[in-house]
């Protein structure tokens, strides 16, 4: 087995597998109690329900997950609890962006320990005037050099005051451990430019299922620890029952060539991005309306352009109003309305007014979750 060396020794290449990222990913919320403690039981319930959907996977602790408002201890626990509640076949992406390379890599290591498949890394923001192209290039390369998981760049200039230039993304796409970018500018022109500029990025052979779906690390290395669990039949008559993990059928895989993967972060340009060649999308709107987002994707996959455009039109306005304008509080209330636990955002984010809640209910009246 090949090995990957980084700052804290040597790790098996399993932790550094290049992932096949395709389809719709929900940027999930982080539930809180009224006193703002993390509500882990509700997190488990939400994640278990997303796991029963047709989503390709989830992003934990992205912008919608209020990642910047959690301390490191809370962050690691949220990553752990969410991973434990997720179905093995769902691709898990951890938001790990911090203000330094060192802190970001530490969280990437925590995500690897929790058996995530990739990490989502934003641009540092506090020293914004110092974030020149050279500094940003150095930051992402340094993180990718040391991260035990593949890196997805996160471009969200609305919140992180730096718009990663297309040419810089194209240069980073040549790195062996940088596999894609989530672009949340809302610009279809930028999506198209990113796809065109990264065509020359190296392709890698990645494991996929026999029907060309992603193979996650949790599918290949199921959890073996057990508190009770399966008891082999041969041990039942011996008077000694040793709890072991139940046998797991091997995952049949094949390989697929995958290049640099561009994901849109905007439900409003989902269909157009897919038509331009995007691999999929990471959507805050999918946290409250996953089925409606999936319907656009499936209609596009089925080459039913008329249906896809109809489904896209249905979510464009509500997603813009709820996600882009109302923000995290809007998404959380929409989750409550559609049967997930949303709750309130952490301070200083403000709760919605009664009028805003009514508007969200009206926007979602015809949108299934």
Give structural notes.
It is a single chain. The chain has 13 helices and twelve strands. The protein is of the alpha/beta class and 369 residues long. It has two domains: 326 residues, TIM Barrel (Alpha-Beta Barrel), CATH 3.20.20.70; 26 residues, no CATH class. The strands form three sheets. Strands 3-4-5-6-7-8-11-12 form an eight-stranded parallel β-barrel, surrounded by seven helices. It has a two-stranded antiparallel ribbon with strand order 1-2. Strand 7, helix 5 and strand 8 form a beta-alpha-beta unit. The chain is globular, with a radius of gyration of 21 Å.
**What is the gyration radius calculated from CA atoms?**
21 Å
- How far apart lie the N and C ends? 43 Å
Class by SSE composition: alpha/beta
CATH class of the largest domain equals Alpha Beta
* Biggest β-sheet: strands ordered side by side in the sheet: 3-4-5-6-7-8-11-12
What is the number of helices? 13
CATH topology of the largest domain: TIM Barrel
Enumerate the spans where pLDDT stays under 50 for 5 or more consecutive residues. 1-16, 223-243
Query: Roughly what fraction of the amino acids lie in strands?
Result: 15-25%
Number of domains: 2
Shape: globular
**What is the helix/strand order?**
EEEHEHEHEHEHEHEHEEHEHHHHH
Number of strands: 12
The CATH architecture name of the largest domain reads: Alpha-Beta Barrel
The CATH superfamily of the largest domain bears the name: Aldolase class I
Q: What's the main sheet like?
A: 8 strands, parallel, barrel
Mean pLDDT metric: 90
Specify the helix fraction band.
25-40%
């Amino acid at each position: 087995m090949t090995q990957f060396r980084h700052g804290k020794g040597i790790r098996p290449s399993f932790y550094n597998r290049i992932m096949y990222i395709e389809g719709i990913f929900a940027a999930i919320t982080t539930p809180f109690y009224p006193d703002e403690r993390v509500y882990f039981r509700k997190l488990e319930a939400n994640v278990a329900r997303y796991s029963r959907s047709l989503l390709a996977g989830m992003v934990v602790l992205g912008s919608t997950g209020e990642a910047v408002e959690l301390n490191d201890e809370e962050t690691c626990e949220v990553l752990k609890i969410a991973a434990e509640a997720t179905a093995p076949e769902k691709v898990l992406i951890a938001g790990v962006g911090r203000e330094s390379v060192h802190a970001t890599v530490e969280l990437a290591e925590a995500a690897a320990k929790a058996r995530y498949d990739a990490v989502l890394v934003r641009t540092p923001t506090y020293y914004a005037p110092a974030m020149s192209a050279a500094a940003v290039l150095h930051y992402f390369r340094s993180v990718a050099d040391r991260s035990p998981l593949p890196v997805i760049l996160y471009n969200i200039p609305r919140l992180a005051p730096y718009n990663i230039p297309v040419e810089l993304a194209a240069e980073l796409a040549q790195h062996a451990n940088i596999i894609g970018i989530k672009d949340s500018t809302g610009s279809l022109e930028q999506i198209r430019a990113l796809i065109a500029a990264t065509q020359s990025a190296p392709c890698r052979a990645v494991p996929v299922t026999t029907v060309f779906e992603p193979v996650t690390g949790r599918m290949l290395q199921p959890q073996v620890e057990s508190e009770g669990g399966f008891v082999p039949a041969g041990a039942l008559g011996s008077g000694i029952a040793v709890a072991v993990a139940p046998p797991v059928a091997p995952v049949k895989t094949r390989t697929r060539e995958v290049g640099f993967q561009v994901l849109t972060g905007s439900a409003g340009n989902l269909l157009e991005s897919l038509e331009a060649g995007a691999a999929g999308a990471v959507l805050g709107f999918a946290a409250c309306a996953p089925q409606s987002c999936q319907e656009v994707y499936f209609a596009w996959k089925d080459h039913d352009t008329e249906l896809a455009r109809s489904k896209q039109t249905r979510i464009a306005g509500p997603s813009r109003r709820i996600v882009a304008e109302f923000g995290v509080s809007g998404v959380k209330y929409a989750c409550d309305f559609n049967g997930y636990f949303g709750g309130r955002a952490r301070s200083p984010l403000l709760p919605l007014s009664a009028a805003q809640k009514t508007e969200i209910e009206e926007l979602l009246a015809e949108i299934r979750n």
